[in-house]
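Can't paste images in this forum, so I'm doing it all in text. The chain is below; anyone willing to post the predicted structure tokens underneath?
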Amino acid sequence: MTRVTCTLCNGQGTIDIETAEGAMEHGQRIILQEAASRCLDVKAMLSPSRRHDLAAGRRAAAVRMRTETNLHFKQIGLLLGRRDHSTVINMVRPKRQGRNGAKPSALATPSHAE
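Text version of the structure:
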């Protein structure tokens, strides 16, 4: 078994190369499954396009990779078309509620009460 120091966690841990490679392969399978289940082209899904269906497919793949594998945000971003780790964090994080429990879209609606 080959072990190396993890550069993603600033050397605080070690990773099994075989385990890490297996997780990356599993992540790639997740991308293929999500693309197939949504009838999306994998190349388009990994492109910089912001088209709603492609973004939804990427988001679903990111959530599955985060829950089903031990991949870091940076690794997930690399698999999803070289996206930044902060983009992946925003994909995976549940949408926040606005003030008083209102959804953010409801806050943006102007009130016509006088």
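The longest strand covers residues 3-5. The helical segments are 17-37, 42-45, 52-68, 73-79, 85-92, 104-108.
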